[in-house]
Amino acid sequence: MKHTIVLKQNHEFRRLYQKGKSAVSPYFAVYCRKTKYPVSRLGITTGVKLGNAVKRNRARRRIRELYRTNEQHLRCGYDIVVVARTRLIYGRYWELERSFLNLMKKLGLFISEEEHT
Length: 117
Prior knowledge:
The protein is of the alpha/beta class. It has a single domain (4-106), classed as Ribosomal Protein S5, domain 2 (2-Layer Sandwich), CATH 3.30.230.10. Helix content is 40%, strand content 23%. It has four helices and five strands. It has a five-stranded mixed sheet with strand order 1-4-5-3-2, with helices on both faces. Helix 2 links the parallel strand 4 (40-45) and strand 5 (78-84). The two termini are 21 Å apart. The model has no long low-confidence stretch (mean pLDDT 92).
């Protein structure tokens, strides 16, 4: 995660929930908001509903990996919070990736090939 810092403060999460744009899929809910900084900040939330600590940590690792592998296609300068939903645990990786990229496109964070070059 070259251009990304971890989002940790509770008030930053709450600000995104209240004032950010959001998009949902069966696997995630994503909130984002433009910032004045040149780097993006990523926060990941996994609730107790997902299961025990092993399942929650696995969900976090999967989300982090989805973000890391697609980071070069995402715009910089955004705060992003990804909330894991219960289906994430049972979803196949390719389904998760397709869903994640669709949400990023919906929120306007995905850079198309024409813009990238």
